[in-house]
Amino acid sequence: MKNIIDLGVAAGLSEEQIKGADLMLRNVTGEGLDYQPTGVDPRDLALLRRNVAQTEEFALASVAIDGMRLKFVREQNQAICKAAVEQNGLAIQYVKVDNNSLNMLELSIMAVKQNGLALQYPTCCDIDEVHQIAVKHDGMALAFCTYPTLETCELAVQQNGLAIQYVQHPNIELCKMAVAQTGAAFPLCVNVMHTSGSHDTVMADILSLNELALLGDGNNIRYIDHPSAQEKRIAVEENGRALKYIGFADLEVQKAAVKQNGLAIQFIHNPSEEVVDIAVEQNGGALVYVKYQLDRQRLIAVKNYAYALPYCTQQSITVVMAAVMTDGLVLQYVLRPTPEVCLAAVMEDGNALQFVPAALQTEAICIAAIKQSKFALQYVDHSLFVEFHTGYKFDDDDIPF
After folding, report:
1. Domain count, the chain
2. What range does the domain containing 383 cover?
3. Is residue 379 one of the residues assigned to a domain?
4. Are 22 and 28 spatial neighbours (Cβ–Cβ below 8 Å)?
5. Does 166 map to a domain?
6. String of b and e for 21-38 (b: at least 16 CB within 10 Å)?
7. DSSP string, 89-157
8. Alpha-carbon distances of 44 from 27, 38, 145, 206, rounded to whole Å
9. Residue 401 is assigned to a structural domain of this protein
10. Which among 30, 213, 243, 303 has the fewest CB atoms less than 10 Å away?
11. What is the pLDDT of residues 147-196, one digit of tens each?
């Protein structure tokens, strides 16, 4: 029987390929471990995982591609570990801390600079210097700080306000920092009402915190018990839909809400004419929530948003004409189209011809549609081809089908 070298030569393999194949076979029996392929690709993770003699050069090149490969490096040194955590800070979990030649502080700092969450691993130095570097890069790393200082907490919430959830007994000032960074931190701060000073000072701090929260996200009004008129106004000016969380809203708050978002009118029971006017001016689609409509309100709505036409309780010729002149395709929602309406629609968008009933497809309407868009030709009722000549001359490239 031929040996592996003879078989490799017969198969046309190079000497390097033959040695590699021989190595893989001998590894099964635990032999041949002294062979290290030359010119190997450091991207080949299989080589690193096998029991192959690892050179420092190969290990460095491999972890530089993926720091997590440090897990498979048997002989670690400072240079290899640095290359690994520099590529992926989470690789610090695979550093062999029993190696006295490693500078763990240096590696920890490099790791948290690359990824603040590297702080979660026991191999990372749990000291304030490392804590502060970690939270500067990712505030949520505060979750892994043992006994963080006030300064560390401040750095964390300034980077990510949601890190306030990992602060034990936060004060008002920390909460303000968190909420200023993101309004989403407010729900985590609602129970923080303890601060030094007189009752008036405490209430002033709380009101200030509430305003910061509402300026960041008006929906935070839901977390405030008995909000003031000013807080309601701030909330709806930031987000009109925050009106849904306000039990009672006076006229000024209602107006401010629909001015910011016309669709907020859905949260108002029996809105006034003035509020409806503001709402449909801001968003014509708000008409869907208006039960009692005036024709002028319908007109405002379709001028701003033609597709508000289906929400009109009545379709006057004025409203319909305004809608199709804004977008011809809303002809599909016209209950009783007339030749005048159809002509206006196809002049705005020739493709509206598809919504013109065959009985209303006159020569003038079809010509107007085709002139506006050559693709409208496909919507001309076939029975009309023999009844009129369009008078419109097409080039060969004009035919859309």
Report:
1. 1
2. 320-401
3. yes
4. no
5. no
6. bbbeeeeeeeebeeeebe
7. GGGGGG--TT-TTS-HHHHHHHHHHH-GGGGGSTTS--SHHHHHHHHHH-GGGGGG-SS--HHHHHHHH
8. 17, 13, 36, 59
9. yes
10. 30
11. 999 999 999 999 999 999 999 888 888 999 999 899 888 888 876 644 44
